[in-house]
Structure formats: C-alpha cells, structure tokens
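ok posting inputs for the pyridoxal-5'-phosphate job
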Amino acid sequence: MSEAGLEQKYIKEAFDSNWVVPLGPNVNGFEKDLEAFVGQGKRVVALSAGTAAVHLGLLACGVGPGDEVCVQSLTFCASSHPVSYLGATPVFIDSEPETWNMDPELLEEAIKDRIAKTGKAPKAIVPVTLYGMPYRIDRITEIACRYGIPVVEDAAEGFGSRFNGQMLGTFGKFGVLSFNGNKMITTSGGGALITPDEDSWREIMMYATQYKECYPYYQHEKIGYNYRMSNVCAGIGRGQMSVADDHIAHHKHVQKLYEELLADVTGVTVHKQPSKGGFDSNYWLCTITLDPALRIKGQENAYKAVVPGAVGGAASIMHIAPDALTDCQPNDNVEALRVFLDAAGVEARPVCKPMHKQPVYSSAPAYVNGVSEAVFKVGMCLPAGPYVSDQDVRYIVDTIRAAIA
Ligand SMILES: *Cc1c(COP(=O)(O)O)cnc(C)c1O
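and the output
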C-alpha cells in the first residue's frame, strides 16, 4: 500500500470505530511504534505538539516559578517558551562552532555562575538537535550528572539522528519529538515526549489529559493540560512510521548531493557534522554559510523594503514590521540570495535568530561566545523534504551559481 494509502486506512479506522478523540487505538499504536523506533526501553506519550512535550518534560523536572533552565540559544522558540509558560527564566547558552549546538564549556560556566549568583542550580538543561545535528550529548550528560541537573533533549528536528548509535531523545531524562507539518515525519501537527520509565510515563499521561483522578466524576489534584494527540492525527503518524526510515535516508542523500554539487562554489560552505566522534545527523535541513565577501546579484537592494515575512505571521495575520531592520539580521548577501532563490521558486530560509537576541528575552541571562550570532548572520537553510528530488537539488544549486555576481 502507498504511504497515503496507509495513512487513509488508519484515519478511516478512527472514523469507522468512532475514535475521533484525543485517545484511542491509533494513539496507542503510534506510541508503540515510536517506542520500537527510539529503543532503549523508553516509554512514549503522543501529544498535540512538540511544544507541549517540552512543556510537560520541564514540568516533570519540577521547573516552576522563580527557577532557571539552561536552554540552547540557537533554536526555534518552542525550546524556550515553555520555560516562560512555567514562570521560570531561560538562561541561554551559546553554541560551539562544529555542531552549532549547545557549547558544553559555556554550559558548565553558566551553571557555576548561576549557582554563585542565585544560590541554586538551574532546574533543567535543554540542548537542541538544530537541523537534525546531534549535540555533544556525552559531554552535556557528564556535566548534567556532576551538578545533578536533568536533561530534556529537544530532538524535535532530530527524529532518527543518533550519537554513538543511540537515538537522540533517549539520553536525557526526557526527550522531545515533533510531528509538525515540516518535520521528518508528520501527523499534520503533533509531538511526543520520550519518558524514562513506567512511573514517569504515567505521570506525563496524567498531565497530558487534565490530571483526572480515578473516580466516576471529575476529581483533580493537580493542574493538567489538554495535550494528548488526537486519534485521527495518530492515524497519520502510524502511516508515516512506515516511511520514516526512507525519509531519513532521503534527507541524508539530499545533504550529500548538496555537498557534492556545492563543493566547487567559492564562498558557499555546506555545514557538515564532525567526521569524528559518533555523530549521525538525520540532516533534516541542509544548511550553508556564505562568506561575507561573496557578492550576490541584487545585494544592494537587500533590506531596502519591509518584506512580508518569509516565516513571520500566521494564517495571513501579520503585524506590519515598522522597519526592514532589527538589531541584528543575516548579512546582505544572505538576504539577497534568499530573494533570488524565492524569485526562482525556491524557499530558502535564514538560520534561527538566537533566542538571546530576541526582544522578548532581552532580560534573560545569556552566556555567549558569538558563535550563534555569527551563524545567524552567514547561515541559510536549503529545502530538503521528501519531495525534493535530485533534479530539484541540481536546480537549486544552479540557481545559487546564477545568483553569484
Ligand atoms: C518544531 C520544533 C519544536 C516543537 O514544535 P511543534 O511545532 O510544537 O511541534 C520544538 N523545538 C524545535 C527546535 C523545533 O524545531
């Protein structure tokens, strides 16, 4: 059966059996599939979003008002916003240059400094598999253990990425997965929390379903959330699991093709995982960096006008940006290449703007070395989804060549 066929079969079953609710056979089946996929004897709870998984993971680590959580700064906001939902403060940690992920040395410096300044250790550590790249989980785990701080791995973009053969998301106390429309596999929207044992799994399940005690009527002893995945979405997930390995192999193949085809393009560097040390990225997105000296056609017009955002806004609702510039943005040549590719029908995006540079976090402590800000200025993400063919990659690379002035 084709991929869409399997998905439609499970969705049809949900309707036929009248399980059109946030529980049911597809949710249970999808959780079992995920447990088999990640291994390590972990238990998984399927949720309505990856953001919900971050939220519940932190909650279960005891994060509450007045606490601090060390979060990788170079990430999508879903890694850090749940810290704020809980009334806690994110402490942003900059990246190391090889993986672009959490710098273990800065992490330890931050922990020591927070203990010195506040008298208590951060309550959790959130490293992020940015664009699928594994973080240095061996060193982060060693530091986390030394200070007795739990790790909540944000592996939302790292579904199927491994370190020393082990799936990311299974090293920490909790691991986050996302099945949003753009992720490695999708349930339209959704996520999952990988939990360490039966007790944690039960507790997360309670929190995900409004913390209803076992009575014939609603009895609540804790504040819960309506975060369980819908049985219809989980049907899509079960179908997607049958092609998960193919998707991962495809993303790795696309990365390799970009590496080959861009190898001789001066001024453009494909970001690769370290060749030594057990890294196995799923290469969810291929990222490149542009030498600041590289000239791109139309560069003189970069940021001359407010662009109705490549990624901003939602459902056609937008705030009108008051100015084409903020306090820091990608270099002019990066923006010019984005515009050039866009005109050729290719959607490329800037790398995430570091959270410590976001206005909403202007008062959050940050331990920085300049790496994430530098990456933001020179980096760009190229298309890599399951429908990006070899021919598409060739077209994208040809367009990049044509864009160079
Ligand atoms: C996608 C993503 C999440 C989770 O997002 P949802 O859209 O809520 O599923 C969390 N962290 C990162 C880094 C992500 O990219």
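notes: Residues 49-51, 75-76, 78-79, 128, 154, 156-157, 178, 180, 191 surround pyridoxal-5'-phosphate (CB under 6 Å). The chain has two domains: 3-243, 245-403.
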